[in-house]
Amino acid sequence: MNLQLGTLEEMILIILLMKEETYGVDIAKEYQKQLNQSISLPAIHVVLKRLENKGLVNSKMGEPTAERGGRRKRIYTATNKGFEAARDLQQKRTEMWKVIPKFNFSA
Amino acid sequence: MINPPKWPERVLSRFCRPDLADEIIGDLHEAFMWRAETEGERKARRKYVLEAIGSLKPSNLKSIYQLRLNNMIFTNYLKIAFRNLQKRKTFSAINIFGLASGVAAFILISLYAFQILMHDSFFENKDQIYLAYKERITPDGTQPTYDTWVPMRNKLVETYPEITNGTKTFAAEAKVVKGSQFINEELLYTDEHFFEVFNFKLLHGSASKPFQDKSSVILSKELALKHFGKENALGEELELYLPEEDTTKRYLVSGVIDDYPANISIRPQMVLQMSSIPAYPDFVNNWGSSFIETFIVSRSNPEELEAAFPDLVESLWDKEARNNTNFKLLPYSEYYNTFLGDQSTASTLLYIGLGILLIAIINFMNLSTAHASQRSKEIGLRKVLGAYQGQLKTQFMAEATVMSTIATLIGVTIVLITLPYFNHLFDVAISIDLLGWTPFAGGIAVLIVLLAVLSGSYPAFYLSSIRVLDVLKQRLSFGKSANLRNVLVIVQFTIAVILISATLLVKNQIMYMSDKNMGFDSEETLIISASARDFTNREEGITRLNTFKNELKNKSYIKDLSISRSVPTEWSRSFTFVKPDGWNGNPLRMSYTYVDANFLDTYGITLKSGNSFLADSEGDQRTSVILNEAAMKAFEFETDANNVIKIGDHRINVIGIVEDFHFESLQNKIEPTLIFHRTAQHPVHRFISCKIDMTNIDSELSEIADMWSELGATTNFNYTFLDDRIKQLYESEARFLGLISLFSVISIIIACMGLYGLTLFIIQKRQKELSIRKVLGAEISGLLQLIFKEFALWIGAAFIIGVPLVVYFINQWVSDFYYQSEFSWFTIVETLIIMCALVILTVGYQSLKATKANPVNYLKDE
Fold first, then answer.
1. How far, in Å, CA of B148 to CA of B313, rounded?
2. This prediction's pTM
3. Do B22 and A46 count as a contact with CB atoms less than 8 A apart?
4. What is the pLDDT of residues B297-333, one digit of tens each?
5. CB atoms A69 and B25 under 8 Å
6. Could you say which architecture CATH assigns to the domain A7-106?
């Protein structure tokens, strides 16, 4: 598979894979929890749009809730293609890591 | 429950694509709640706003069609407008940038003019404040003097119930003592009513009881920050040396004045109570010496009060005083014009601004109508498809609105970018803050609408009235519009003629004034401010200054040296009443000053007859005077020798007469003046003037500065050169010249841009005609003549209209100056040359190209 994925795109895709269904703020919370680093919502939205265009995630509209000021969520789920893309990238990376000579860093 | 701010949501739901809005707004909202809990409300709020703005990405926005312009035809207009902009790039660029620079120039000028025209509008009761002053009535007319007496304020308030309040002020200087350092500050002595009359806001302290006691001082916020590093300086101690009182005392801060705008006349920095002056009790009921300004607040008509004043004058003095003195009231709105500047230059500039805007609007109108022929098919088609005339008008107005909006926004951007440079270049302090950003934005909106209406209405009416049949039969004649176009171009040319020649004429007058022989030698003259008041101990100060002077004299580079009370460019403001011995008439009010025996030599002032003062002659000091020629005339002396004048009963011999020299700006006539002698050791003197060798001026100055710093004065070494001082006299005129030069250039550029566009169009239309003429054997020079004939007519008409206007304007302007340069017709010729050169440059290349083109290219499609 030949799909370019940016680091942030990959991170968010993995978060999507971790949780079956999720949406913008939830991703922000998870990102902050996992990486100890805050992220802005417009950035997440852009990334989600890009992932959707690449066919790695699907989205559907959810129900409105009070804490969202009566607005509906857009709920994202990763597609099979998304799962494969993330997995391939991870495998590729593991293979490459194996080649790195360990002794260089043991000293 | 906390909620996020409302406006970002409103903006987002207006502009975001509806299918994305819920997600974006909802997420932001939820994130706000979450962050408010974890990170605190303030941070959440800030992030909310930032992220809302961040969400306004082009990809998230509604396209222009979705912007709730549910009137479909309207979106079509906009579409066509943008397409037209793109299709005719040169025309659009000329239109938009011409209009934008016109708008920018207009906004800059308006801001500048606004600042001057709105001077002192900071004071809420401006219309009720008057400066009370006295007027001396003489057979030749009246002479106003603006200084009044200490008891004046109370007398007026007590005598007339219409006068509800008043205050007195006296400007002086103070030196803040910080260890061995002395820092100069402007000082205002006043009374407890000052803050009732002038509505300055006190940040700390009370406006009704601003002074606690005689050792209270009130500071501006600026000074509080400067001396105490904080705004609330209440109760802080300040040590002041007051040269007027020759005392050093400690004061406690009892009030801090809030910042005030730059365009007000009275600018209190450091305020002391007048009654704290030790000698104050001597003046409380003294109607002899007048040295303060008295302001009153009156609800009634000033004329009624002025009519009642003669009785007051008589009750204060006697019947004789009633005949030769009167009290007058100067409305505070006239204060600026009387003492500080001239609001009429601001109005002149405003007219220039309007002129520039007019040029830009005309460009737009001309180019739009000129292009009508190319759009006539579109218009015809729209009509055939059933468009009403009204709809077509709307369409063209919409196009004009698009143009004017883009142009105005670019113009505003230009203003925002260039404002600091403009301020720096002309040494002014224009800011939008003074006007306020909301009124500014409002003004811009009004300007956009106005521009759209002005520039769009003619094309709209003209183009929409084209008859369908004419269009389809290709029988369109543009005769009528060509006439109007000629008129408009002539208006543009006229404005250009006026601006160019006015600039040249104003420059003439300024050159005349700065080049005219002043009657003294202004070259290589160094003037050092040096007064006994610069020392905490006057006696000691005089001795030290004397040493300083002697040391200077011994320097090889000092060729001549004099010490005096006044210098040319900063002449005396002191007046005395004087008359020739044996006169029965009223004494004349005349300025006087003191110089040492070397003054006339140092300045190269020519003695017309008689002698100069004798050095170190004590007798001279009491009984001799030198007059200028103007004074001789005023006294009506017939012979030059053996004249005697009297001040009171004191007889003074006129020992010499000097030729008139310009001790003030050439704006003013040379007034009579009396020159008395005081030896160099006398404390009245304030300046040391040196003829200095300029070859190593830097090292010489630093040597003198070192000598000065050893004296232990409270002031720094403070020097000027006489020729700089003379230049400074014409500072405001030079600024005016700079402003009109700049704006003339801008207006000319805009006019040339319009002309260029118009030429492109005219040549395009006439290309076929030119080609046929060429085929029939016309020479290139003949064709060029044909094209330039029209421009020559325009320039001619512009001169016929413009020159009388400019002559009128320049006569008005020059009438403010007593010494006037002659009106030079050469400048009109210069203007003509400049105009022709500009036209040839703008039009020439296009015309040449058109006449040289191969006729076949333009004739083959027939």
1. 13
2. 0.70
3. no
4. 988 888 888 888 888 888 888 888 888 888 989 998 8
5. yes
6. Orthogonal Bundle (1.10)
